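Figure-free illustration: sequence to structure, shown twice.
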Amino acid sequence: MQRLAAEALDLALAPGVEYADVRLEETRHRGVGTKNGKVGRLESAESLGAGIRVLAGGCWGFAATDDLSRQGISRAAALAVQIARASALARKQPVVLAPEEKYEAVWVSPCRVDPFSVTVESTLAVLLAIDEELRRGGATLAETSMTFERARQVFASSLGSVIDQTRTWSGAGYAAHSFKNGEIQKRSYPNSFGGQYQLKGYELVEELRLLENAGRVAAEAVALHSADACPEGEFDLILDGSQLGLQIHESIGHPVELDRVLGSEANYAGMSFLTLDQLNTLRYASPIVNVVCDARLAHGPGLGTFAFDDEGVPAQCTSIIREGLFTGYMTSRETAAAVGAARSNGAMRAQGWSRIPLIRMTNVSLLPGEQPLEELFGVPRGIYMETNKSWSIDDKRYNFQFGCEIAWEIRHGRRVRMLKNPTYSGISTAFWNSCQAIANRDHWVLWGVPNCGKGQPEQVIGTGHGASPARFGKVRVGGAYQE
């Protein structure tokens, strides 16, 4: 693969090309699932190809191919150059790249148990046992799944970098649906939208205690039918870490993508309210809130963890919110200069070899606080919500509404009753400024979001969000939000 990448790079460096890079990538994917005691999903896929990006005439050109013969790569390289030169005809200003060093590296993510060494039959046996336990607990519909992927990428650039990375990630989870009197209730474990995903091997499945929790999850889905509806009004709101992860994703992660701010991401999911003049001036959150964008393995085995991004920039930790103050964007080599940065902070990634890299979330995490969990619940009256069910946010990432699978009314630190169909809403900055308490590191989890979409054509990629449960004051619960 390194030889092929070097050949592709040589072919891309045509006369007039100012910079070029090549990503040669090989991926393997497996997905297994059950539905009510039967196989519901069984898929396997492999992919191998090359993406070639060139800068010529001050504009980008990109082309990709799965024909890795010299002729195939030569055609793709020539097309990338042709696209760049055509783009230059309508250029407003030339692309200028922030400087970067040359790197030669080989990196393999930690993987204790190769998920592809576990047979499909063994995987299905685990899932079918969980499926049976969910139905025994009263679920009308039981769904389980496991997903595994390995990607090896060789990156080569005209800076002289040659970077060989292999990342393996796993995901597992299930959902219990209960249908009664025309109403459907759902409980998921350990998170909705497929469960938990991390940069690990099959050991993740062993860590999640899936079968042990199946009976409780199914019982909660059934019990929701008899629960009271979540009340409306302003309450102290406590969110579990998984729901808080999605809140971070939508109301912090996407707004700090600098391409949204600069307008090049307007075609998919909108832009951002975080204009350049707000950097280092906006009071984004209360003083106890600290958020980082961290792709380093030291931060944890997240879906946004790597050694180098897709333009050869090393993984870094960037402060996004420091003691409530907005302090940073996610950048690329092209956009770094817009915020006066000397270099990119390494946030460029692509969905495989056939797509051009974009600014993407790595692991955008709320750092843990100092409070024990009991202190979060120590309010006269509050609402505690778990597990996302729905979300909506405007095209500036400002006004939002979220729904959760389950809630409990809290009275002086105790859960006094289960509540169904809970929702809450607000404005991003007002919500984060209302943060009153964050649980300590004992309760911090790096959650995986495998389905973040961006770009046109759409690219779906995995991100990570670390969070402990947290409490927010006077949040609008139930109904529609009105400013």
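We now fold a second protein in the same way, so the two outputs can be compared directly.
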Amino acid sequence: MTAKEKLRRRVETLTEEQAAEALRVLDLRVEDPVLAAFDSAPEDDEPWTQEDEAAAEESRAEYRRGEGVRLDEIRHEFS
């Protein structure tokens, strides 16, 4: 069964409200220039280095120690 056939079957099981929401999401996906840019962007092909891993581990350790900044605090600072 193709993806389109599966989609047609799935659509038939949706309520009218669910179908309207699904259509809205699909329309956004097609019409949004930012999403279109992400879709057409090349895959990141830079290798992950030991320096990258060390920086990521340092960030994870800070998070585990509770040293992260909450999103609402960042929003408040920049609003």
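Summary for the second example: The CA atoms of residues 52 and 58 lie 10 Å apart.
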